[in-house]
Amino acid sequence: MGDNKIVIYSPGRANLIGEHTDYNDGFVLPFAIKRYIKIEIEPSKRFKVFSQQLKKGIEFDTPTKTNSWADYVIGMIVKLQEHGYRVEPFTMHVDSDLPMGAGLSSSAALEVGAGYAISQMMGYEINREELAKIAHECEVEFVGVRCGIMDQYTVALSKEDHALFIDTMTREYKYVPLRLDDTKLYLINSGVKHELGSSEYNKRRHECELSLQAMGKSSFREVTLEDVEKIQDPVLKKRALHVVTENARVLKTLTALEDDNLVLVGKYLYESHYSLKDNYEVSCEEIDFLIEKLREYSNVLGARIVGAGFGGSIIVLAKGNFESIFEKVAASYRVKFGISPTLLNVETSNGVHRVL
């Protein structure tokens, strides 16, 4: 890499609460974390994209789909061009300390980071909201994952020491101070990722659409608990129940944060988990085991599964020395499942930014 090299840090994200609501016109409360995809970019004769993790790269003249990790970058080239932005060939090196498959949204970090890096290299400014929307188009239309906008918005727009409250229907957002004092947020990576993940994710989306049809509604924002009660199909009823109660929990969490009532925030995290387990059915035996073990300690204010589900990570809100609690929980988890979970101390971060 030469003197023209630009270096970008694009953060992962954790979601405090509001799970599986972002594609249902719901509310979410995520924040960016100090774990990054590092992108180095400089002009070159051909497009070259190299991954430090995978120790492999790809070269091309014309951006076309490859059905590989590189599509998150290639899709951004295509989408930026569609939006009228000029993109000239570059060499890009991608490195990361974001654990893959832990539900920390490495894909959105790569999309937003690549788009931001290209704009910096080409010397034009893209409004952050527009950058997030282009990255979302890349994921949905180019990569082919029908996700909501939460991840891209969080990576592009986050502010340190704040969560980002997003109304995914109107796409309005506001910054919510996270005053945690002696309380900290952690992520526990369960070390399991069940293959069900992606197929079940699309299935849940479809079930939510069917439950709306059953209630004669076009959006969950029009749905009350009384409407949910009228659904005949027990599975569809449970899916709708999760979305409606989870939206309410996000709003209650917002109020609790404004009142600095972290005990209440913790309570809502547990409630969210049990709804994801029983109503949305996206948890798994390993995650449930961890949650039940964590509940035995009064220092742990709350915890829940995060991300698409079927493994991945748990977010934990805890006081005092959580590391020693984690060691005990991890020991019993290893005995039962033969897997070592890992602990990530979570610090909030700014959104995508240039460091060089």
TrEMBL record:
Domain GHMP kinase N-terminal residue range list: 72-157
The identity of this protein, by name, is Galactokinase
Keyword annotations for this protein? ATP-binding, Carbohydrate metabolism, Galactose metabolism, Kinase, Nucleotide-binding, Transferase
Q: Which NCBIfam families match?
A: gal_kin (TIGR00131), PRK03817.1 (NF003006)
The reply to whether Zinc-finger figures as a keyword in the UniProt entry is no
Q: Which chain regions cross the lipid bilayer?
A: none
Q: Where is the signal peptide?
A: none
EC number annotated for this UniProt entry: 2.7.1.6
* Cited Pfam families: GalKase_gal_bdg (PF10509), GHMP_kinases_C (PF08544), GHMP_kinases_N (PF00288)
Domain named GHMP kinase C-terminal: residues: 255-333
Q: Where is the Galactokinase N-terminal domain?
A: 2-39
Family, per entry: Belongs to the GHMP kinase family. GalK subfamily.
Record flagged with keyword Kinase? yes
Species source reads Fervidobacterium changbaicum
Q: Name the enzyme group at the top EC level.
A: transferase
